[in-house]
Specification:
Blueprint: E1 9-11, E2 32-44, E3 47-58, H1 61-81, E4 89-98, H2 109-113, E5 117-128, H3 132-141, E6 150-153, H4 157-182, E7 187-195, E8 199-202, E9 230-243
Parallel strand pairs: 1-2
Antiparallel strand pairs: 2-9, 3-5, 3-6, 4-5, 7-9, 8-9
Helix pairs in contact: 1-3
């Protein structure tokens, strides 16, 4: 009986999916099993990007700008005194506009007159994950009444991606071994491997936006209880094994 080479493609997600047909060259030199496997790796975030900022109202543009300038510099001075390096802070947005009141606004004419102009500004601060709460607390204490969003990250994403790929390759070998056994064959050496479609996933950002009016002046409030999130990387590996 002629010996026929087989090529088996197995697609794995959370579990092994159905085999998919491919157009292949069948000959005595093509005794292989090809497997596509997916896996992931995760690690606790070690880096945080904290969004801080403020928004104020004033009866005229000059007053809004003057008060905003004072508050802007006070926030950055507070961060600097707290040990945050200048290079860790990046400006995101700054805007002086005429206030647009919503249709259902119930402010009195006098109240509206005091809020004719709005000045807002925001920054992002990159810090170690353990310092995220400290950065946020410092900004809010200094007047950052539009602060709180945190994006969690990992300094060594390439390392995490490599872990995911390694786990996917192990899974691919396990499946290939099972397939070879089903064919009454022995799995041989790995002939080819490719990290086909790496995917990056960052778990949801956390938000703790707070207004200055919520802060009790005395005694000073403690920093918010903030914990780093898990950062996740996925990898899809295409591996071809010889069968004997």
């Amino acid at each position: 009986m002629k010996r026929i080479a087989l090529l088996v493609l197995v697609v794995l997600g959370a579990a092994v999916g159905a085999a998919q047909a491919q157009t292949i060259q069948v000959d005595k030199n093509n005794r292989t099993i090809a497997v596509t496997a997916n896996d992931k790796a995760s690690a606790l975030a070690d880096t945080a990007v904290v969004t801080i900022g403020f928004q104020i109202y004033a009866p005229d543009a000059a007053t809004a700008y003057s008060q905003g300038s004072t508050l802007s510099n006070a926030i950055l001075d507070a961060l600097k005194k707290a040990g945050v390096a200048d290079k860790a802070v990046e400006s995101q947005d700054q805007k002086l506009t005429h206030t647009e009141f919503p249709e259902n606004d119930k402010s009195t004419p006098d109240q509206r007159a005091q809020k004719q102009f709005t000045l807002s500004q925001s920054w992002t601060v990159k810090a170690e994950a353990a310092d995220a709460a400290k950065v946020l607390h410092t900004a809010i204490e200094a007047g950052g009444n539009e602060s709180g969003n945190i994006e969690w990250d990992l300094a060594d994403r390439n390392g995490l991606q490599a872990q995911a790929a390694e786990k996917a390759l192990v899974r691919a070998r396990q499946v290939a071994t099972q397939m070879a056994a089903g064919l009454n064959a022995h799995l041989g050496a790995l002939i080819y491997a490719s990290n086909q479609t790496p995917m990056t996933r960052l778990l949801e950002t956390s938000s703790a936006t707070i207004s200055a009016q919520q802060i009790v002046p005395a005694p000073p409030p403690a920093p918010l209880a903030i914990r780093p999130q898990q950062v996740e990387e996925s990898a899809t590996v295409y591996a071809v094994f010889a069968i004997e």
